[in-house]
Structure formats: structure tokens, C-alpha cells
Amino acid sequence: MKRIIGLATLAVAIGCGTAQAQYSDGVIKIGVMNDMSGTYADLTGPGSVVAAQMAVEDFGAAAKGLKVEIVGADHQNKPDIGSNVVRSWIDTDKVDVIVDVPTSSVALAVNEIVREKNKVFLISGAAASNLTGDKCSPNTVHWTYDTWALANGTGNAIVKTGGKNWFFLTADYAFGHALERDTAAVVEKNGGKVMGKVRHPFPATDFSSFLLQAQASKAQIIGLANAGADTTNAIKQAAEFGIVKGGQSLAALLIFISDVKALGLPTAQGLVFTEAWYWDLNDANRDFAKRFAPRNKGIHPSMIHAGVYSAVTHYLKAVTELKSDADGKAVVAKMKATPTDDKLFGKGTIRADGRKIHPMYLFEVKKPEESKGPWDLYKLRATIPANEAFRPIGEGKCPLVSG
Amino acid sequence: MFEIFGIPSQALFGQLLIGLINGSFYALLSLGLAVIFGMLNIINFSHGAQYMLGAFAAYFLLQVAGLNYWVALVVAPIAVGFTGVVIERLFLQWLYKLDHLYGLLLTFGLALIIEGVFRNYFGSSGLPYRVPDALQGGQNLGFMFLPNYRAWVIVFSVVVCFATWFLIERTRLGANLRAATENPTLVRAFGINVPRMITLTYGFGVGLAALAGVMAAPIYNVSPQMGSDLIIIVFAVVVIGGMGSIMGAILTGFGLGVIEGLTKVFFPEASNTVIFVIMAIVLLIRPSGLFGRGT
After folding, report:
1. Is B227 touching A (CB cutoff 8 A)?
2. Overall average pLDDT of the B128-144 stretch
3. Per-residue pLDDT reduced to its tens digit, B200-214
4. pLDDT tens sequence across B222-243
């Protein structure tokens, strides 16, 4: 069932005829593909299309004489559907850049197609650190976060406060495997031990069986290497089965603002986790959230939405300077050569392997009595500086990095 | 403590019990499907959406009207069952004489529309619903910690399943109903209002789905796609049990829950395919299902 939602075909600006002759077919076409209807729809979904639209508007594309169009599609978390959409986007619809693409298995497939077709791939939603490691591509920039950064932030924080023995509950696909691998490495490096793991189908609804296995392992920490509804269901059911009361702790290795909202503060309070962006960190972020939420049915932006905004902004800068969007490799090279600077992520850089570098943050979910509003959910525990937040470039085995 | 295939027996008992809990959801849902198929000859693909509606009804009753879980357990199935009655009167009644495919397409389309509308207004990440206070906490059974709420789910669904079976197979009302599906003209001649009975049967089947939805609300997040995740498995359960067989649906529901639970211990990666493997084998050996009446 191929369902391409012509979600938001938006001609943002109608420029004058001569100025755009240098862009392929006269228009910069941005394709936002993600999970529009399933378990990841709130943290990516239509909100990412809104974020891309806002980036184009704030960039002042119209005033600069650029004609930019945004299209959206649903990949239903299936690599085959995602691949088909991207192929037809590039071949028949002349899409120049693919944005977002959560679900690492889909992102890895798209990564290869974009490289083959020499277009640009800006990843905000997907997490597998392989995308800038052994699978890195000269056409890809991995923007918001990755499994290594999550493992490094959350894993380190927990091991250092005494959580040495781990059991993993892992979503059985590329993302879960990558997150489990990267976290296990952090745990073992800090003298901890992995006591066992269980891989659950994606998506799953009932975790009681897996939680019972985790309970039987007697590990101190149960690491949840999954995302979206899988994570919230696992946390909810762990509370039900008295796992936390029994002395074991949960580590939500990847959790988003919409997940915390869905769990509710009474269940989620005290969870410690790593993210790249939170709407209430500073004035610029608050202003963005204030403009974003009404356009996204009141849902506040997740770090993935913010990443889409930031990535599209930087892409537009590079394309305007080059005055061309035709050669994907050249555009990405230009993006890497130019330092990044935008309202939401501040100043940063993009490394040779395609990894965008910025600080990461360790957050804790507030207690119900600390929260002042429905979206007042996090408090900042620590800032992980940009130079420590991501995997050192030499350790990723990326073929683009010489030496 | 002894071991079975390298798994401590204690862990195994726990997994069997959990399999039964999941099986009770399969049984409740496949029961509704079996009732609808057996009596109306409609393959009700909107069953998952109606299960989801039940969970949402419970959520609204609590948030908007302040009515608790116990009230929802009664009110939600009636309210959602009533929407089923409307659907039957408006659409389904015109399809009985046509091929099964038309009913399937209609109900599938309805499911997509209902889920789409809910996703549009409530998003995909779900809404929280608390376990009722009376069922908070749990019992330590020695081999596992059994939350009180899950124990309640097993007991209640067994009661509902067998009450339904009794109603249809052992009472005068059920006899009329079964007769009406065999030969509606003759049953009409006895002065029984067959169309109304069929309408109410559909409403009842939908109500069963909504009841399962209310029971699921405190365990899983109340979210628009909660039904579509489950419905495919439930259809496999019905096919294995034999389309239209009430007892078949109940027994296979519980049985497959247990088998799936055990798979989660021995080979977790296969736990969402094992039911389909069994379905393929059963269809090869007994095409009408384990409890089907044969063709």
C-alpha cells in the first residue's frame, strides 16, 4: 500500500523568472519523509513539515528571490515504502533534498539511494550512529542526535552514579541494535557489566513478558533501547509490575517530549535522559515553540522538529551561496565548510563524516508539583559540551575520514 | 527449583500466566469477531478501531464527565455498541446478500477513517489512563509479581467469554439468533423481528470490542493506532479457531496467548510471527480452522 500524502505542497515564494535559472528546474524542492501516522508521528510527523516551512519563511526565501517547495510523505516505518517514495521523489518529482526520516532502518536505505542519485540527505529523526560511521556518505548530514550521543549522555550519567549492572530491552531493528551496542560500550568502558538482553519485535504493545525476564536477571538498570510508544508502554508496564519498587531502575535511552507528555508526570517523574534541544531552554527556543505549537495542533516541538528547522536553514544558506542545488555532494561540502549558526542550535560545525556538532543536554523529568504548565516537563541536569557530546571522528570507521 | 529447556521453572510459570493475560484480550476480541461473522457473515475489519473507541470512551468519561473505570466498563461498551447499531442500519444491512469482500472493504475503510480522525485530534503518542484505585498494587505469587489489575483482566474476560458462549449456544434467544442466520424467512414466519435481532447482534459484537478497549486502557496507552496493532493478530486467531465458531475463538484466543508468551522466552524475535506460522500450518491441515464446521 503505497500512500504518498501530498501533505503540504507549499509554494513558499514566487520569485522572478531570471534569478532562479541556476537551480535545477528553477525550484528548490524539499521532501520531508517520516512516520506520519504511526508510533513516531507526534515526535516527527506533520510537525517536521511545519518546522521545514518555518525555516523557509524565516530564511526569507521569497525576499531573496528563491522559489522553495515542500512536500511530505509517510514511510510507515518500512524501508521498502521509504525507498519507493524517495526514488519517485527524485526521479519524477525532482526533489533536491530529503529531510528528517526517523526509523534507522528506513534512513539507512534512503542514505544509499541519495548517495547513488547525488542528492542531499539531512537526517533529524533517525538515530543509528552508523549513519556517520561505517555507512557515512558524502551526501548526508546527521543533524540532531545519534545513538552514540544518547549512550554517552545517559549511559555515563547512570554508570557514574552506581548503576553498574545492565539488562537491555531492545527494539529488534537497526536503531535498537545500534543504541544497545553504543550503550553497552559505554557501560563496559566505565567498569559496568551487561547481564543480558532481550530483543522485542517493533512495534510491540505488551512488554510484560520481556520485563519479567529483565526482572529475573537481577540487573540494577534496565536499559530501554527503543523509542516512541514502545518506550512509554514499557515504562508504564514496568511500574505496573513493581519493577521500580523492587529496586531496579529504568534507563530510557531515547525519550521525547511527546512521550513524557503521554506518560504523564506521575509515571515519568525522575527519568533521566539525553536530548539535543528543549523548548524551554532559552528565549529563542521559547519563541520558536510559541510560533510552532499553534501550527501543529498545539503539540510543542520535539528536538527532531527543531533539528529539521536548523538543518533546512543551513541547507538554504549553502544553496544560496553556491547559487545551485544540482550537485548534492557539492552542496554538502559547502555545508561542511560553512560554520552553522541559527536561532535554535546556535553556533556549530559539521564534521567530515557528516556529523553535526553541538552540545547535548542531560534532562530530568519534573515532579508533578514542579510543573507549571502542560508542556513544562524537563529540568536541566547537565550540559554535555559539543566536543564531548559526539563520537570522536576517528572511532566511527567512516571511509570519508582519511587516516 | 527445576529447569525446563534451560529456563528456570519459576520464570516459565510467570510467562505462562502472562500469556494467559494477553490471551484474554485475544479471546475477547476474537469472540466479538466470531459473533459478528457467525451471525451476520460480515468480516468486521473495523473491530480494532472499535476496540480503540472503547478505550477513548473510557478516557473521555474520566476526563470530561469524571466517571471512573467501573462506570466506563458499563457505559463505554453500550455507547460504542450504539455506534455499531448506527453503522449496521446505515451501511452493513445492504451488504448481507453480497460477497464477503464488500463488507470487508466497507469496514476496513471505516477503520481507516475512524483512526485517521482520532489521530488528527489526539496525536499518535497516546493519552494516560490510570489503573483504578481498587486494583492498584499486586500479589507476590512466589514465582512472579502479579499486578492485581492483570488478575482482574483474566477473571473478568473468562466470565464475559463464557457468558457470551452460554447466551448464544444455550439460551432461547441464542437459538432464535442461530436459526435466523440459517433461515431468516422461516424465523420471520414465527413472528420474530430478524433485522432488529441482527442489528442488535452487531451492536453486541462491537460492544465486546469496546469492552476489551476499556480493559486495555490502563495497561497500554490510549492511542489511535492501538487497535490496528492488534487486529491482524486477532484475525489470525479467528482463522485458526475457525471462522464463526464461538468456543473456537475463546479457546484459541487463550491458547495462542500462551504460545506467544512462551515464544517470548525461547525466541523473542519471532514472537510476532509465531501466530502466523501456526495459522499457515492450521490452514494447510484443517482449512476450516481447528473448531470450524467444515465446508
Report:
1. no
2. 87
3. 999 999 999 999 999
4. 999 889 878 989 999 999 998 8
Ordered domains of chain A (ranges, CATH): 10-145+281-358 (3.40.50.2300), 148-275+360-389 (3.40.50.2300)
Instruction: Give chain B positions within 8 Å (CB) of A267.
Output: 128
CA A204 from centroid of its chain's CA atoms: 21
Contact B218, B129 (CB under 8 A): yes
Q: Which residues contact B285 (CB under 8 A, 6 or more apart)?
A: none
Assigned domain for B257 exists: no
- Determine, yes or no, domain membership for B167: yes
Q: Cβ distance A286 to A239 under 8 Å?
A: no
pTM score, whole prediction: 0.87
Could you tell me if residue B107 is inside a domain? yes
Retrieve residue B18's grid coordinates. 502472562
The ipTM value here is 0.85
The Cα–Cα gap between A255 and A154 comes to 11
Q: Which of B262, B235, B279, B259 is nearest to B32 (CA)?
A: B235
CA B194 to chain A, closest CA, distance in angstroms equals: 39
- Residue B262 domain-assigned (yes or no): no
Residues of B whose CB is below 8 A from A299: 123
Question: What's phi and psi for A247, nearest 5 deg?
Answer: 105, -5
Give phi and psi for A379, each to the nearest 5.
Answer: -125, 145
Contact B148/A at CB under 8 A: no
Query: How many domains is chain B partitioned into structurally?
Result: 1
Residues B222/B100, Cβ–Cβ less than 8 Å: no
pLDDT band at B40 (very low <50, low <70, confident <90, very high): confident
